[in-house]
Specification:
The protein is an alpha+beta fold. The chain folds into two domains: 5-113 and 199-217, Thrombin, subunit H (Beta Barrel); 121-195, Thrombin, subunit H (Beta Barrel). Helix content is 16%, strand content 32%. The strands form two sheets. A seven-stranded antiparallel β-sheet has the order 11-10-7-8-9-13-12. A six-stranded antiparallel β-barrel has the order 1-2-3-6-5-4. A hairpin with a 4-residue loop joins strand 10 (162-165) and strand 11. The longest helix is centred in the middle third of the chain and has 11 residues, at 97-107. It is globular. The model is unreliable at 212-224 (pLDDT under 50).
């Protein structure tokens, strides 16, 4: 089933500003929604230290509405600079209670994406810089963790956007621009496949069923 125009309208608001790029909101049944983005959209990487302090992985003025300057604080839950994927969550409410409330107020009313997998090839969509959904083709080789997106244009400023399949699922994240871009072909290699690049604990969380009261609140969302 192909998502409707109303679905696309609602899910435009699920794509937000992250630093100089973008991110998109994903539902977490047992916690507040998280934001998935490209790692290079972060102002800097947190230190490689499991015992780091919370403030070392928390960024002020990182999130905002799509097209607006970032103004909200967020914490980095996960980042992989090799596959270029990052996951953000609410800041620590004990340290920054007002910022944690602002994060919740900003994200909770929004439609959310569900994560899916591309096993071979499919059609899909990307959100352009002018906030229009453009059709594309999506391919993945069985031995590669990355997707290739064809027949659309990825421009600077689109990093962190979701690669959305024809079932309305986020299957990848925009990371790099075109390798070839001419009249006959536009192919963008190296877009991270979410089911291959996200950590297992996060993938396990995304497949849990949303509580009924949360599912009912997702007006305009389309679930698979």
């Amino acid at each position: 089933m192909i998502p409707s125009t109303a679905w696309f309208d609602a899910h435009t608001a699920a794509i937000i500003t992250v630093g100089a790029g973008r991110g998109f909101v994903v539902a977490m049944p047992t916690m507040l929604p998280v934001v998935i983005t490209a790692a290079h959209c972060l102002p800097s990487l947190p230190p490689a230290d499991p015992m780091m302090y919370t403030h070392e992985r928390t960024y002020p003025q990182l999130l905002g509405p799509l097209g607006a300057p970032p103004s909200l604080r967020a914490e980095c839950l996960f980042v992989d600079p090799i596959t270029d994927v990052g996951v953000l969550s609410e800041p620590d409410g004990e340290v920054w209670p007002d910022d944690a409330d602002a994060y919740q107020a900003f994200l909770e009313p929004r439609a959310t994406f569900r994560v899916g997998a591309v096993t071979d090839h499919t059609t899909g969509s990307l959100l352009s810089l002018t906030h229009e959904w453009t059709p594309c083709r999506i391919d993945r080789q069985p031995t590669v963790r990355m997707l290739t997106v064809f027949d659309t244009c990825i421009e600077p400023g689109m990093s962190g956007s979701p690669v959305v399949d024809d079932r309305g699922r986020a299957v990848g994240v925009v990371s790099v621009g075109a390798e070839r871009h001419d009249v006959e072909v536009c192919e963008h290699h190296g877009q991270p496949s979410l089911v291959h690049c996200l950590p297992g604990w996060l993938l396990a969380e995304t497949v849990k069923r949303l509580p009924d009261h949360v599912a009912r609140r997702r007006v305009g969302s389309w679930r698979v």
